[in-house]
Specification:
Blueprint (H helix, E strand, L loop, with lengths): L2 E4 L3 E7 L2 E8 L1 H9 L6 E8 L4 H9 L2 E9 L5 E7 L6 E7 L19 E4 L4 H10 L5 E5 L2 H6 L1 H8 L4 E5 H8 L4 H11 L3 E5 L5 E4 L4 E4 L13 H16 L4 H18 L13 H14 L6
Parallel strand pairs: 1-4, 1-8, 2-6, 4-5, 8-9, 9-10, 10-11
Antiparallel strand pairs: 2-3, 6-7, 11-12, 12-13
Helix pairs in contact: 1-8, 3-5, 6-7, 8-9, 9-10
Bound molecules: adenosine monophosphate (AMP).
The site of adenosine monophosphate has 16 residues, from β2 and α8.
Length: 304
Amino acid sequence: MNLLVVGSVALDTVETPFGSVKDALGGSSVYISVAASYFTQPVRLVGVVGGDFPREHIEFLASRNIDLDGLQIVNDGKTFRWGGRYHYDLNVRDTLFTELNVFEYFKPTLPESYKNSTYICLGNIDPILQLDVLKQVTKPRLVVGDTMNYWIDTKPNELVSTLRHMDVLIVNDSEARLLTKEPNLIKAAKKIIKMGPGIVIIKKGEHGATLVTENTIFTAPAYPLENIFDPTGAGDAFAGGFIGWLARTEDLSPDNLKRAVIYGSTLASFCVEKFSIENMRDLNYLQIHDRFLAFMELSRFDER
Ligand code: AMP
């Protein structure tokens, strides 16, 4: 089933205790689309880049069968750039710079062929733009959204309006607390449910993710990797794996939502094993399925 993804397309400069990369392919819509492309087709990307965006990145995205009709190329502008540095505790990250460039004037306009999109993933951008995208889609079946501290602080009312149109909100623990002013994460998730999304997923970095609905709580561990090189985009890869699986199966039952959380965690675990999207360039079905099965083993136990 088709999937529409909107968000940033970036050139990232990232330092971790294990190395660094400069102007590597990144951005929320890239991580989401690449992860989702392992499950469903077509993935339709909406974003903007400048004339400096390397041709090889376009070719890579196209090679994953990602539809780029919605990628605006502003030839006389520069691509959005973001820089970050991680500490030994990889949950701690400093943003070194954010150069909006062409992203500053980004107005997501959907090509005609995208307007019938069914599964929608709103990456972390201005909530007003997220809503603009939704207004252009005729009949979405599932809307999954992400946000971040910056929008919670600077556009709380606009974010609340957009939340009313989301079915699933994916946020990290600190964002859930900030949004609801509630320290307990389960209570925070239930408060968010009252704001619109019937399903809330709270990500806790290396401690996994918890899905909360009115009647269910499901917790997935993060895959216990010994080598984590770059956590950038893990949350977006999670979102891509999650919605990609749901779009593939077209099944929104509680059991399948749990599987989607595990497929999201699976793609996030591949993402962090190398810089940028390097480790998600060329996965195969068996690698993904084996890790999915390993997740089952991680917390399976018998009563006696
Ligand atoms: P995450 O690690 O999930 O926070 O996602 C990291 C990605 O988000 C990087 O590839 C960045 O290019 C992108 N990013 C960083 N800041 C912003 C921003 N203000 N708006 C949109 N995307 C951003």
